[in-house]
Amino acid sequence: MHAHRIRGNLFAALCVISLAACGGIPEPLDTAEDSKTMPYTEYTLNDVIDRSLLDEVVVLDVRSEQEYEGPLGHIESSILVPLPELADRIDELEPYRDQEILIVCRTQERSRYAAQLLAAEGFDNLAVLLGGMRQWNAQADGRNSSVEDNKSS
Question: Starting from the edge strand earliest in sequence, which strands make up the sheet with 79-80, in order?
């Protein structure tokens, strides 16, 4: 377990360093070969709504607290763990290890990094919301609302 914590912390540190060096989050590779090895599933907002996934998954929001409380809002019942804190707060997610964790951020880039970090820590039922909260609000005006509210829009 200690080796996993060190590896997770190292991964988080490398993410932060790469963000600082690049001035933002670099685009992940998006090839067919990469998609076979992704440690997570990617869901569109339609997937989430059509399958009523919010009733079945744990929603992990990896944005900052300011973003979570800001204009894009957040998904009701989501757990907030900002990406820079994730490696140090993995233990908070242990109760959800056997459930699917749907990771959200503003778009999906930080969610992908979070999924990779959690996969390195042994979590294996992970998903990313494509388009993140921007898509959630643009398509469903879903701030702080339930899936049922979104089905009617």
Answer: 41-43, 126-129, 101-104, 58-61, 79-80
